[in-house]
Design a protein that fits this description.
This is 2-oxoglutarate ferredoxin oxidoreductase subunit beta. This protein has nine helices and seven strands, in the order αββαβααβααβαβααβ. By secondary structure, the chain is of the alpha/beta class. It has one domain: Thiamin diphosphate (ThDP)-binding fold, Pyr/PP domains (Rossmann fold), CATH 3.40.50.
Length: about 260
């Protein structure tokens, strides 16, 4: 049997979590991407000194309890209505950093009209869009982003595009709107991906502070419970199936009012 030796931590390497993360057990399923993105948002708000200036808007869905985990001001919104609530907060408090945190069932379905018009107006907010291709909280039903032939509780034989239509690429849609300044699609399944995602979120936050209009950061994610897979298999399935249809990278990076520029 091997001896258990003291773990030596390298110098200048910071361990632990942001003080903005509330010390409570998360309700997310093991392997869920939500917890990773929560951690990134807490780190960035902390690192950028924005705790007193930040207001998050969380709607119905798996992220409904986001206020339990990040120690900032939060506002609950009805299903899909987070962009409308964020619009009001941002316009009344232009000095604040305002963001929405929404899943695909919320943003791309009942909230499709809200997000399209908020982005078209160029509201000065950051939209964090978690796309796991399914309704995670309510039983694993088909979402607007569910892939073709993907099995869900409401498409047991797979999504049929003749019956259900095609998976909706919200990020490509909002990139066409003049009110958006930064539109990107990221992931968080590996350490390098997490670092890229954090840089994208930071850029979105900076754009809000610089009043550049709407920034939109999609995070292609897993729902291993809804997909009926282990976390490891869900990550592999996402890479092999979600990424080809929802390719990662920046779709737009410019100024509010400018035409789409692909970088």
């Amino acid at each position: 049997m091997m001896d258990i030796k003291e773990i030596v931590k390298p110098e200048n390497l910071v361990y632990g979590k942001s003080e903005l993360l509330i010390d409570t057990i998360m309700h997310y399923c093991p392997g869920c991407t939500h917890g990773v993105v929560h951690k990134l948002m807490a780190e960035l708000i902390d690192e950028m000194g924005l705790q007193e200036k930040s207001v998050g808007v969380a709607p119905v869905g798996c992220a409904v309890f986001a206020y339990n985990y990040i120690d900032i001001d939060w506002q609950e919104a009805a299903h899909g209505r987070a962009p409308a609530i964020a619009t009001g907060i941002s316009r009344l408090n232009p000095e604040k950093f305002v963001f929405t945190y929404q899943g695909d069932g919320d943003l791309a379905s009942i909230g499709a009209g809200e997000i399209i018009h908020a982005c078209n107006r160029g509201e000065n907010i950051l939209v964090v869009f978690i796309n796991n291709g399914i309704y995670g909280m309510t039983g694993g039903q088909m979402a607007p982003t569910t892939l073709e032939d993907m099995v869900t509780s409401t498409t047991p034989c797979g999504r049929d595009v003749d019956l259900n239509g095609y998976p909706l690429k919200m990020t490509e849609l909002v990139a066409q709107l003049p009110g958006t300044s930064y539109v990107t699609r990221q992931s968080a399944q590996t350490a390098p991906a997490v670092r890229k995602c954090k840089r994208a979120l930071k850029k979105g936050i900076r754009n809000v502070l610089d009043r550049k209009g709407t920034s939109f950061v999609e995070v292609v994610s897993t729902c291993n419970s809804g997909w009926k897979m282990s976390p490891a298999k869900a990550n592999k399935w996402m890479e092999e199936n979600m990424f080809p249809y929802y390719p990662l990278g920046d779709l737009k990076d410019g100024e509010k009012g400018n035409p789409v520029s692909n970088n």
